[in-house]
Each structure stands twice: as C-alpha cells, then as structure tokens.
Amino acid sequence: MEKLYYGIREVASILGEQVSLVRFWSNSFPGLVRPVRNARGVRMYSADDVEVLKQIHYLVRGKGMTLEGAGREMAARKSEIEAKVKVLDSLRAVRAQLVEIKNLL
Fold first, then answer.
1. Cβ distance 53 to 22 under 8 Å?
2. 37 pairs with which residues across the strands?
3. Is the pTM higher than 0.90?
4. Do 74 and 25 contact (CB within 8 A), yes or no?
5. Using alpha carbons only, how large is the chain's radius of gyration in Å?
6. Where do the domains of the chain lie?
C-alpha cells in the first residue's frame, strides 16, 4: 500500500465489493475501522483500516462467517488472520504477474 488514505470507492475496488457493503462493514466494526471524512464528506480509510476490512472480507466471504463470528474470530486470533490475509495478497500479486507474463508471450 502506497497511499495514506483511500476513498471508499478505492477500498471497494480493492476488496471487489460494493461501496454499500464496505460502508456497512465499517459501521459494523466501529472499534476496528475508523474512517475519517474529507472536506466533501467522503469516507477516507487509512492503510490499517483497509487491512482490517481485508480481514473481515476474508472471514465473511472466504470462510462464510457471520459478522458476529468474524468479530469474535478477529478478537481471538488476530495475528493468524493477518498472516493468512497477507499470504493471500502475495499469492494474488504473483498470479497477476504470471497472467501479465502469459499475455506478453
């Protein structure tokens, strides 16, 4: 992540989800995700907020957990979930590079 803050549309694009779902998740986890608003009122998410949203996405979409279950899981095993999400991000980046190389051939 290179930027300090990401707009809600950028975060939705990163997660591959709708803006309304990102807003819902950030409202559901106010202690973990704390977006700030810019002068136009757009929610701006820090890199840490994006990482937490990736973890929520992994647990809810990837593992099929409810929001309550995801919250409990994040409280109990935060470091394990962080590690798994980072590995998945790395694998996605490698896959994207391989697809790019394939397209060049």
1. yes
2. 43
3. no
4. no
5. 15
6. 5-104
Q: Which residues contact 43 (CB under 8 A, 6 or more apart)?
A: 7, 8, 23, 26, 35, 36, 37
CATH number of 5-104: 1.10.1660.10
pLDDT digits (tens, 9 = 90+) for 36-89: 998 998 899 999 999 999 999 999 998 999 999 998 998 888 888 888 888 988
Q: What is the pLDDT of residues 4-16, one digit of tens each?
A: 899 999 999 999 9
Partners of 45 in the β-ladder: 6
| Residue partners of 90: CB distance under 8 A and separation at least 6 | none
How many CB atoms lie under 10 A from the CB of residue 6?
Answer: 21
Residue type, 23: R
Encoding tokens for residue 18?
């709708």
The two tokens of residue 70 are 């995801």
CA–CA separation, 55 and 58 (whole Å)? 5
